[in-house]
Task: inverse folding
């Protein structure tokens, strides 16, 4: 009754977490047909292409694109999560991006697509934000920091292969972390000059996270690239020295 494109569309909605009843109402496809597609033995068109994974292969290898992986790792550690599919078929990677930064949303989508070109990437609108979502059986292979509960309630440590990737692309990790839990702001102060009070503005970067491990990863990577930083209030890292801000501007820049 239904062509292949209709079937793919319905399975994609299911992969995003919509119920069978909701998909049936949205598409007009009978629930019996949807149940039949899910119960078939052969993999559905949505899941084909995910039977191979270079991380869980007999001889695991790192990703081909170090830059995109490092950037996406930073986004995941800041504003990302991995959740299991309700029917146990795989996992959703979700990165939350504020509506105010359309460029960031596009960069996130592009990085996911580059890392997993066979996985579709969906933009799910929520109030004030967009959830960039992709489905795969193997997201936990690429982000082994995945686990139950909030990140700051569990240890976050990098695997040896992840550290090697970051060592070669430190700025991409820093960009991902700043784009998720950081910002570039303009501070100001005033000084009395020849009897006249003048206002001076200067940029600085902030990064805020509740996980001591993620903060440590951020600051150690800043040390690697020669950026001076200060820790404030336990959960904040500030970059304010002119030379270090110039380095950050050259490699990170403000969100857009």
Result:
């Amino acid at each position: 009754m239904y062509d292949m494109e209709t079937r793919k569309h319905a399975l994609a909605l299911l992969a995003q977490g919509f119920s069978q009843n909701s998909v049936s109402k949205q598409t007009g496809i009978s629930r019996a047909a949807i149940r039949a597609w899910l119960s078939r033995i052969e993999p559905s068109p949505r899941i084909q292409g995910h039977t191979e994974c270079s991380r869980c292969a007999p001889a695991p290898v790192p990703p081909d694109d170090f830059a995109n992986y490092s950037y996406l790792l930073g986004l995941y550690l800041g504003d990302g999560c991995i959740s299991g599919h309700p029917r146990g078929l795989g996992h959703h990677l979700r990165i939350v991006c504020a509506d105010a930064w359309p460029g960031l949303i596009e960069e996130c989508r592009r990085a996911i697509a580059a890392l997993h070109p066979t996985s579709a990437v969906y933009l799910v609108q929520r109030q004030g934000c967009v959830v960039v979502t992709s489905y795969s059986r193997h997201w936990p292979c690429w982000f082994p920091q995945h686990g139950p509960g909030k990140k700051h309630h569990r240890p976050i440590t990098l695997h040896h292969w992840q550290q090697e990737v970051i060592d070669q692309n430190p700025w991409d990790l820093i960009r991902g972390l700043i784009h998720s839990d950081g910002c570039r702001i303009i501070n100001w102060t005033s000084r009395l000059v020849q009897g006249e009070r003048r206002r001076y503005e200067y940029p600085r970067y902030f990064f805020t996270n509740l996980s001591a491990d993620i903060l440590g990863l951020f600051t150690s990577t800043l040390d690697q690239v020669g950026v001076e930083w200060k820790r404030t209030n336990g959960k904040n890292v500030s970059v304010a020295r002119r030379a270090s801000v110039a380095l950050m501007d050259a490699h990170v820049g403000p969100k857009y």
The beta strands are 80-84, 91-98, 121-126, 129-136, 182-193, 196-208, 230-232, 236-239. The CA atoms of residues 226 and 242 lie 13 Å apart. Confidence is low (pLDDT under 50) at residues 41-51. The domain at 177-251 is CATH 3.10.28.10 (Endonuclease I-creI).
